Amino acid sequence: MAKKGTDFVCQNCGAVYPKWQGKCDACGEWNTIVEEKIGGEGFSNLTPKHKGKIIDFVPLVGSQEKLERLTTGIKELDRVCGGGLVPGSVILVGGDPGIGKSTLLLQACAKIASLPINPEVYYISGEEAIDQVRIRAKRLKLEHAPVNLASATDVKDIITTLEKSNADVVIIDSIQTMYLEEVESTPGSVTQVRACSYELIKLAKRKGFTLFLVGHVTKQGAIAGPRVLEHMVDTVLYFEGERGHHFRILRAVKNRYGATDEIGVFEMQDQGLVEVENPSALFLAERQGNISGSCVFAGVEGSRPVLVEIQALVSPTGYSSPKRAVVGWDSNRLAMVLAVLEARCGMNLSSQDVYLNIAGGLRISEPAADLAVAMAIISSLHNKPLPHDMVIFGEIGLSGEIRAVSQPTSRLKEAHKLGFSSCIIPPTHNKDKKPNNTDMTVYEIGNVQRLINWFN
Ligand code: TYD
Ligand code: MG
Questions:
Q1: Which pLDDT tens digit goes with each residue over 57-104?
Q2: Do 93 and 204 fall within a single domain?
């Protein structure tokens, strides 16, 4: 049972329990619940209590101030933020430790500070000493950018300092190292992370600067993950990538000032992160010709079409139950595609192991990849390669029907631009929505059974 003034808080999602338990019912994670002092009434005791005043209501119609966005000069970052940084907005940048968050933000703040309008930029590191940041800046050849650098962790000090400044952009790296003395729990705990963010966000809104908060994604219970902050901030960006790959993807999962699902693609090189303007070309760069089990999916990430190679390997199983392994796609979706192929096409996959890989380290969440996955699996099973210049997209329904997906024209345009000359796509029932690309050979397929014919 919790002592008076303490609660048991899940460090992953922030759910509160009266006593300790092994698994968090809210997010399903194990061993993330930790006893925390809640310091009186959380962080409400940090602001002086005042008597309520009458608030004014206004009609929905009215004039709004135009959002003046600050473009950072890093196009991939600007696009993910919805076209630049909005003053007074708060952006949470989450990601695994070591993925490149500090590198990205150091590059961004150097670029912003060097803009001709001379924005005032503050980079506050709680993780690294000044020398460490300087070494990185030197390595990135950014040491002459007029960035105000400090190493600090006490939020009271940071607020007092920023209060006197004319900051335009402030970076806090990372929020899990910050603390407020009034809050009794340790830095990195849910209560601290929330209280510090609350105070910093309040300041950003009042002073009108853009605030970047860096948050580590963590599976260990001792440090609170960025998920506990997602509802407090305006924009949530996740920086992801496979450890072994040099591609890094910045993905917007929430954005009050722009579209979500937008991605920015970077390549981690010796001299920092380099923007990738044409991700499709990069993801397809290492594709081999005439290999069975490989096909190209024409996907869409946010507003941008992205072509990726999907690889499948089907081989007779040596186990009593066949193995299914997926990298970069949803394993439930793979199970569904396999079930449809078995039930509707009479394929026997119960004695086969199935491995699926999205080449290049990209994670795809679109159901539009179903058809390409099915095609890669059939190609591997029959050991027959697909035409090298073909792209595929379409969603598969449980009765085996192929369903239309969004933005077929822009998918095909991108494919054509990269030299693909044929495609397998869902049937277009509405003539107006027919992709108007006459330069490609288009095969419209209405049912998965027809896929098998490709290999007979
Ligand atoms: P970092 O930005 O410190 O990650 P995070 O802040 O997300 O924890 O990135 C660290 C990794 O990036 C480290 O493994 C080294 C690599 N890196 C490069 O490959 N090139 C570079 O120019 C820099 C600065 C880092
Ligand atoms: Mg870092």
A1: 988 888 777 668 899 989 999 999 988 999 999 999 998 888 999 999
A2: yes
Going by C-alpha positions, the residue among 373, 104, 95 that lies closest to residue 243 is 95
Neighbours of ion ligand 2 (CB under 5 A): 102
* pLDDT value of residue 39: 55
Atom of ligand 1 nearest to the CA of 106: 2
* Burial group, residue 3, by CB count within 10 angstroms (0-12, 13-18, 19+): exposed
Ligand 1 contact, 433 CB (< 6 A): no
Whole-angstrom distance, CA of residue 225 vs CA of residue 223: 6
Least confident stretch, 220-229, 284-293, 416-425 = 220-229
Q: What are phi and psi of 364, to 5 degrees?
A: -105, 135
Q: Same domain, yes or no, for 238 and 109?
A: yes
Q: Which atom of ligand 1 is nearest to the CA of 268?
A: 19
The whole domain housing 407 covers: 282-455
> Rounded to the nearest whole angstrom, what is the distance from the C-alpha of residue 4 to the centroid of ligand 2?
36
CATH number at residue 396: 3.30.230.10
State if residue 100 touches ligand 1 by the CB under 6 angstroms criterion: yes
| Residues in contact with 130: Cβ distance below 8 Å, sequence separation at least 6, in sequence order | 149, 150, 151
DSSP helix/strand/coil, 307: strand
Rounded to an integer, what distance in angstroms lies between the CA atom of residue 245 and that of residue 47? 46
Of 29-38, 219-228, 265-274, 344-353, least confident by mean pLDDT is 219-228
CB 223 within 8 A of CB 217: no
Ligand 1 atom 2, closest CA = 100
Residue 438, pLDDT > 80, answer: no
Same domain, 25 and 117: no
Task: Please indicate whether residue 270, judged by its CB atom, sits closer than 6 Å to ligand 1.
Answer: yes
- Cα-based distances in Å from 346 to 353, 379, 399: 17, 15, 13
Sheet holding 16-17, edge to edge: 16-17, 6-10, 33-37
Total structural domains in the chain? 3
268 pocket-lining for ligand 1 (C-beta < 6 Å): yes
| CA 246 to ligand 2 centroid distance, Å | 17
Check whether residue 222 and residue 300 sit in a common domain. no
pLDDT digits (tens, 9 = 90+) for 391-417: 999 999 999 999 999 989 889 988 998
Q: Which of 233, 259, 277 is the last residue of a domain?
A: 277
